[in-house]
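Input (structure):
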């Protein structure tokens, strides 16, 4: 890293390169066009880590207690941040006095003041102006009080006419003069009851219901989804090659390379396991979502020739996108045996789980929000939300059941769902 007098960086995200190096992405707060990816070991050599703010003064690295952060897995979050929502060329963007701009995912959110949680994006998004946005906001809460003038004014003419038909002509309401040099008479609020018994009670229609443009229509014609149904395989043309999960199927035929990601680097032969599959019955394309054992990273395999079940272990030719660091399987090579240290299955919802041995327990402290440990082939494993899934130092060397769980809007982590009893 180099410096121009003084600059502050945020250690925002941890990721692994195609050759296994662990990197930390640093985002400059003064100049968002500048980011650095540094070795995590070098950062720890300066007593700095993920989720911290680092000041660079004339080439000297210093850690600074800037604002509170939380680290969940490989991503650092900045909670309880006061921001203002503005429109830049029609696109809603959160503006903060402390951090760079952040993307707003709700296009209908009105401009105003909000409290949000911010985290860095896996890759920056470009506005029409050409400006790069490195952050996104979640947990959005409005800080603006409701405006009283949002209520429409009431037309009293029909009220008087209806009462006149029932009670006869009503006396005109006198206009009280304002005392000279004195305080003005306090008007009667429409939202309160008259305080004096001398005031006449007028019964009216009350506030009219305001029509909001984004309000859903009053009908029951909405489409009700049944969740993720079990899809029946349809033989349209040539059927795909089926790979069983957690078994060793025979290899049949060759592979047609899926589209994958662009701007890739040199291909590598790596081992992966299928986490889930999405089938498109219109074009026959099967999109497999993978976990790459040799890189401890997510990937995907898009093909028409194979339909691999969750839990299927295989070896394939993988490439990594330079821009967003995502992995894509270009070619299915062969099925491989399940590593002896791993077991697994599917729960009642069809979601995959694994049993792994964990070590290197780290308690929750500082900006580390929850306790964590590491597992071979899977990397960082976070403790769960239930009491029976909390990690302690006594969990080192124990087997746990883990599942993929979402944090934020786009990030996923391995989380403990059960701590297995020690076998005698």
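Output (sequence):
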């Amino acid at each position: 890293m180099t410096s121009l007098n003084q600059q502050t960086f945020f250690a925002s995200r941890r990721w692994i390169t195609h050759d296994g190096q662990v990197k930390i992405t640093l985002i400059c707060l003064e100049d968002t066009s500048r980011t650095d990816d540094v070795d995590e070991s070098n950062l720890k050599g300066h007593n700095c880590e993920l989720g911290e703010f680092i000041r660079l003064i004339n080439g000297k690295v210093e850690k600074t207690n800037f604002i509170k952060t939380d680290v969940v897995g490989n991503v650092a979050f900045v909670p309880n941040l006061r921001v203002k929502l503005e429109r830049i060329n029609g696109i809603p963007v959160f503006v903060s006095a402390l951090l760079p701009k952040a993307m707003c995912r709700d296009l209908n959110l009105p401009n105003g003041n909000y409290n949000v949680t911010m985290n860095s994006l896996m890759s920056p998004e470009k506005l029409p102006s050409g400006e790069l946005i490195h952050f996104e906001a979640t947990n959005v809460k409005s800080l603006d009080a409701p405006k009283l003038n949002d209520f429409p004014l009431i037309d009293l003419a029909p009220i008087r006419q209806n009462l006149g038909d029932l009670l006869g002509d009503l006396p005109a309401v006198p206009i009280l003069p304002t005392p000279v040099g004195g305080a003005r008479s306090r008007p009667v609020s429409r939202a309160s009851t008259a305080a004096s018994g001398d005031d006449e009670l007028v019964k009216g229609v009350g506030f009219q219901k305001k029509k909001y443009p984004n309000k859903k229509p009053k009908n029951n014609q909405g489409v009700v989804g049944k969740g993720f149904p079990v899809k029946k395989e349809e033989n349209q043309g040539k059927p795909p090659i089926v790979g069983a999960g957690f078994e060793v199927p025979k290899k049949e035929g060759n592979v047609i390379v899926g589209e994958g990601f662009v701007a890739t680097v040199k291909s590598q032969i790596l081992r992966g396991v299928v986490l889930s599959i999405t089938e498109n019955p219109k074009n026959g394309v099967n999109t497999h979502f993978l976990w790459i054992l040799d890189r401890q990273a997510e990937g995907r395999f898009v093909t028409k020739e194979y339909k691999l079940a969750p839990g299927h272990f295989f070896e394939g030719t993988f490439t990594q996108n330079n821009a967003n660091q995502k992995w894509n399987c270009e070619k299915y090579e062969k099925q491989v045996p399940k590593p002896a240290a791993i077991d697994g299955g599917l729960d009642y919802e069809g979601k995959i789980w694994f049993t792994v041995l964990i070590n290197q327990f780290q308690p929750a402290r500082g900006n580390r929000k929850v306790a964590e440990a590491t597992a071979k082939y899977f990397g960082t494993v976070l403790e769960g939300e239930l009491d029976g899934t909390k990690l302690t130092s006594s969990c080192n060397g124990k087997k746990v059941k883990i599942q993929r769980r979402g944090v934020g809007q786009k990030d996923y982590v391995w989380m403990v769902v059960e701590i297995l009893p020690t076998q005698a």
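Notes: The CA atoms of residues 296 and 378 lie 5 Å apart. The chain has four domains: 6-74, 76-142, 241-335, 343-419.
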